[in-house]
């Protein structure tokens, strides 16, 4: 008889994770392996992955750093995991997401089942008619600056699954490989481009922002799409006060608001004819 695996992961979970990764397509990671190449030896590749994950011996390879142009002309760094690592991350995401979803705030719209950017924009527009002032928040380098210790505290609060905790910890510290082959160690952040990263980012901001706002400013509505956040206020004074409190909260969570991109905005229309810099 074969020795029982320390972690209970069904082969079916790995198969379903692979199907979801295949739908999303995506480019090759550090090993240069595309989905097409991975599929040439599919059952063997998935079996090896399942075997390693269920025995605790799965170690993620480095994440390939690529840079894509942003709308403002600057570059956004993305971290591309290998195909098999994307499948592994999807296995964990499938386990963790159902645990987290019921706890998330109804006005968090990014990377969540059944919610979209269109929903967020619709709610924002409606609230801008109701409230004359808005705070447009931008967290400086959010994905690159998430504190691993604080994030793992949040993960452990929602799952006691040892293998889910173990692999998330390993993904957070997996090195980044630059296009010239150099490796960079990671002590904070989670790579944009990873399968599990958006879920972890939402979990972090659930505690750093959503819960904080519910507790401290229950009368200030907001919409959050990942790290893009709009808060609605009744006056400029309220907006300044709330912004000050959020800035302090972000510092407690080892994050910083972008000094140039974070701003207070006056929602001007034919009823509201005042002037303001934004």
Structure, described:
It is a single chain. The chain is built from 10 helices and 8 strands. Helix 4 (83-100) crosses helix 8, helix 7 runs antiparallel to helix 8 and helix 7 packs across helix 9 (197-216). The model has no long low-confidence stretch (mean pLDDT 93). The protein is of the alpha+beta class. The chain has a 4-stranded mixed β-sheet with strand order 2-1-4-5, with no helix packed on it. A 4-stranded antiparallel β-sheet has the order 6-7-3-8.
The chain-level mean pLDDT equals 93
What does the main sheet amount to? 4 strands, mixed
Gap between N and C termini = 70 Å
Number of helices: 10
Helix content: 40-55%
Shape: elongated
Strand content: 5-15%
* Rg (C-alpha, Å): 21 Å
How many beta-strand segments? Answer: 8
Alpha-beta content class: alpha+beta
Secondary-structure element series: HHHEEHHEHHHEEHEEHE
- Low-pLDDT stretches are none
Strand order, sheet with most strands: 2-1-4-5
């Amino acid at each position: 008889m074969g020795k029982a695996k320390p972690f209970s992961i069904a082969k079916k979970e790995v198969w379903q994770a692979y199907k979801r990764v295949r739908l999303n397509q995506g480019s090759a990671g550090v090993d240069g392996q595309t989905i097409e190449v991975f599929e040439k030896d599919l059952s063997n590749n998935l079996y090896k992955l399942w075997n390693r994950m269920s025995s605790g011996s799965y170690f993620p390879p480095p994440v390939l750093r690529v840079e894509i142009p942003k709308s403002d002309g600057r570059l956004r760094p993305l971290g591309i995991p290998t195909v098999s690592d994307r499948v592994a991350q999807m296995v964990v995401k499938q386990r963790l997401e159902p645990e987290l979803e019921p706890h998330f705030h109804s006005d968090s719209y990014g990377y969540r089942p059944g919610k979209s950017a269109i929903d967020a924009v619709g709610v924002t527009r409606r609230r801008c008619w109701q409230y004359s002032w808005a705070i447009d928040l931008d967290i400086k380098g959010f994905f690159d600056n998430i504190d691993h210790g604080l994030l793992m505290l949040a993960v452990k609060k929602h799952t006691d699954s040892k293998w889910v905790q173990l692999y998330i910890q390993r993904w957070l510290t997996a090195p980044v490989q630059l296009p010239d082959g150099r490796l960079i160690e990671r002590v904070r952040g989670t790579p944009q481009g990873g399968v599990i990263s958006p879920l972890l980012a939402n979990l972090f901001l659930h505690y750093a922002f959503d819960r904080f706002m519910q507790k401290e400013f229950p009368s200030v509505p907001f919409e959050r799409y990942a790290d893009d956040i709009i808060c609605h206020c009744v006056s400029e004074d309220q907006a300044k006060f709330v912004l000050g409190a959020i800035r302090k909260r972000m510092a407690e969570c080892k994050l910083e608001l972008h000094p140039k991109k974070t701003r207070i905005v006056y929602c001007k229309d034919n009823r509201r004819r005042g002037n303001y810099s934004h």
